[in-house]
Amino acid sequence: MTEPVEENTRAAGEISRMQQELAELHTSLRIQQRVAYAAGLFQGEVTVRTLIESLAEGLLLVDTDQRIILVNHRLEEMFGYAEGEIVAQLLQTLLPDRYVQAHGQHVQTFFQQSQKRPMGQGLELAGRRKDGSEFPMEVGLSYLDTGAGRFALAFVTDISRRKQAEQDLLEQNAALNAFAHTVAHDLVSSVSVLVGMSEYLLESSNDVPQRDLQDYLATIARSGRKMSSIINELLLLASVRQDDVLLEPVDMLPIIETALFRLDEVIHATEAQIIQPDNFPVALGYAPWIEEVWFNYLSNALKYGGRPPRLEIGSTIGADGAIKFWVKDNGDGVPPDQVARLFRPGQRLDTNHPKGHGLGLSIVQQIVRKLSGQVSVESVPGQGSVFGFSLLPVQTE
Questions:
Q1: Where in the sequence is the domain holding 130, given as residue range(s)?
Q2: Which of 54, 135, 200, 289 is the most buried (most CB within 10 A)?
Q3: Are residues 392 and 320 both part of a single domain?
Q4: pTM of the full predicted structure?
Q5: Are residues 249 and 239 in the same domain?
Q6: Mean pLDDT rounded to a whole number for the chain
Q7: Are residues 282 and 339 in the same domain?
Q8: Residues 6 or more apart from 236 whose CB is under 8 A from it?
């Protein structure tokens, strides 16, 4: 009785083992089929084309005759060509004439000694669009060996924004260096006056006539206020450069009134005439920063306006919906060659009469940019100037 039982047990175990092996084989076959299917897809024309079109860079394939064999849509878009229009054209079609000869030799050398060159270490060139305009581009290279021979594979990136950012940074650094020199000079000048007069009064206070004493004290106070103004604007500049704020609808009237209140002494001293409407369109902004914009614009208009100054404040709505706020003065205007430099750090409106330290308009520009707007100036010599800034409108459903 024991032997039949053992045989049945062994038979059952063998059957179980075979079933397990069959299951494993089935699983392995399914995996192999799935891999083979995927590989077949990646070898197919449709999937290859999909991969090419998904690239963020422009791509082109060039043969040994420097003729374009294949491009993706990003490259056609970059150079301004319609679909398929650039295929079969010579590579030089995409280059300015000054690069054609040297680049042609470079391509020949590449085919003879092909080496992969990553995009980050690529060659910077200028590309020529269909309309003839140029743009800076960076090119990474690779190669592809096929049964039809070797092809050069180029990955092209439009670096216009990067180049512009680099240029802006260089100009900003140069302007900030000039500004630092100007501010340092103004601070040193104010400190020298303050310290010099204070020491003089300490040594000779008993011998100074009362009228002169009042003048000295007034000069010390002005120097202190100037230093405080420079420091406050430096702190404001730092906060504008670093902080982000939530844009909210702003009522412009109370903001302007506060700025005018801060300038009340100057307004009365110059007998200035201020003309403004009863209301303004509501725009998106940040009230404390916008107050500084108005303060700087109004302060400059009072300084450089006519005698007496006549200031007109207003607003207009542009075709794009942006709201432009502006201050018009009756001064001598700004020479055309100085207009482009007005909003750079360290620049003054009138170098012959240097009032202020050339920081205000730079802060205005940075504030308005942070508020997604733009600054502007229109000026005709002898007919005054209009300084403006635009803000986004409040979106209504």
A1: 47-158
A2: 289
A3: yes
A4: 0.52
A5: no
A6: 78
A7: yes
A8: 292, 363
User: Quick check: 296 and 363 in contact, CB under 8 A?
Assistant: yes
Tell me the CATH number at 107. 3.30.450.20
- What confidence tens digit (pLDDT) does each residue in 337-368 have? 777 667 765 444 444 443 443 456 777 888 88
Residue with more model confidence, 165 or 50 = 165
Are 67 and 132 members of one domain? yes
Q: What are phi and psi of 161, to 5 degrees?
A: -65, -40
Instruction: Give the pairing of strands 375-379 and 323-328.
Output: unpaired
Ranges 35-44, 78-87, 132-141, 286-295: which has the least confidence: 35-44
- State the SS3 of the chain: CHHHHHHHHHHHHHHHHHHHHHHHHHHHHHHHHHHHHHHHHHHCHHHHHHHHHCCCCEEEEECCCCEEEEECHHHHHHHCCCCCCCCCCEHHHHCCHHHHHHHHHHHHHHHHCCCCECHHHCEEEEEECCCCCEEEEEEEEEEEEECCEEEEEEEEEECHHHHHHHHHHHHHHHHHHHHHHHHHHHHHHHHHHHHHHHHHHHHHHHHCCHHHHHHHHHHHHHHHHHHHHHHHHHHHHHHHHHCCCCCEEECHHHHHHHHHHHCHHHHHHHCCEEECCCCCCCEEECHHHHHHHHHHHHHHHHHHCCCCCEEEEEEEECCCCCEEEEEECCCCCCCHHHHCCCCCCCCCCCCCCCCCCCCHHHHHHHHHHHCCCCEEEEECCCCCEEEEEEECECCCC
How far apart CA 288 and CA 259 sit, in angstroms, is: 10
Tokens linked to 103: 């680049």
Mean pLDDT for 242-253 is 83
> Is residue 170 located within the same domain as residue 239?
yes
Total structural domains in the chain?
A: 4
Whether 18 and 119 share a structural domain: no
**CB of 381 within 8 A of CB of 339?**
no
| Tens of pLDDT, residues 306-324 | 889 999 999 999 888 899 9
Same domain membership, residue 90 and residue 33: no
CA–CA distances in Å: residue 271 to residues 218, 268, 310, 355: 22, 5, 9, 19
Is the confidence at residue 117, as pLDDT, over 70?
no
pLDDT tens digits, 145-173: 877 778 888 888 898 888 888 887 777 67
Per residue in 324-336, pLDDT (tens digit) is: 999 999 988 887 7
